[in-house]
Design goal:
The chain has 192 residues and is an alpha+beta fold. 64% of the residues lie in helices and 14% in strands. The chain has four helices and five strands, in the order αααβαββββ. Helix 2 runs antiparallel to helix 4. It is elongated, with a radius of gyration of 26 Å. 15% of the residues are buried.
Length: 192
């Protein structure tokens, strides 16, 4: 009888252990889904203004193959490129990943290639002693895109980005937007 009781107790403990394992796996899965939902909301909120502008531009596209249509499609392409990389930067910020010299150069070399494909001559050069935090990288990326956005309003724009940090890790960034001749800027951009 004692052996039967011990055997029964062992089965109960094994079942209880399995139940605890399944319960822990369910809690872990729920926590992961909640974190993913929070990340999605953070990305969605961060890009809401840009995605709204994309939708507006698409909704207002002229039917004909006009200059205005091509300009709006170029602007949509510009905004989609911004959103793609900005989402990645938000994920990196959430994970606490720092950006090395090579990673910073890659991000801004790709952004410069995007700008060139839209008619904005551009180049980027960085000399970093220490990695950049995700928050700084995200802010720097926003600044670069704000200047590139201004470039749409001018003739033959050239956008140059240069950044370096000194021995104290203080970051100095220079962004230069040159043009042949300014066209009239939108009122919201005149005092940028």
């Amino acid at each position: 009888a004692r052996r039967t009781a011990l055997k029964q107790r062992k089965e109960e403990l094994v079942n209880a252990s399995e139940l605890l394992k399944r319960s822990a796996a369910i809690r872990q899965g729920l926590a992961l889904r909640e974190a993913e939902r929070d990340l999605f909301e953070q990305i969605n909120n961060s890009l809401a203004e840009k995605t709204s502008e994309i939708n507006r531009l698409i909704d207002e596209l002229p039917e004909d193959d006009s200059l205005e249509r091509r300009q709006n499609l170029t602007r949509v392409k510009f905004l989609v490129a911004y959103c793609k990389r900005k989402g990645s930067l938000i994920v990196a910020e959430r994970e606490g990943v720092s950006f090395t010299q090579e990673q910073v150069e890659l991000v801004f070399t790709e952004a410069a290639a995007d700008f060139r494909s839209m008619g904005i001559e551009s180049a980027a050069l960085f000399r970093l002693n220490e990695p950049l935090s995700p928050a700084i990288m995200s802010h720097l990326y926003d600044c670069a895109y704000d200047f590139a956005s201004l470039a749409f309003a001018i003739k033959n724009p050239t956008l140059l980005l240069f950044g370096e940090n000194d021995e104290r890790c203080a970051l100095t960034v220079r962004i230069v937007l040159q043009c042949e001749e300014s066209r009239k800027l939108e009122p919201s951009l005149q005092n940028f």
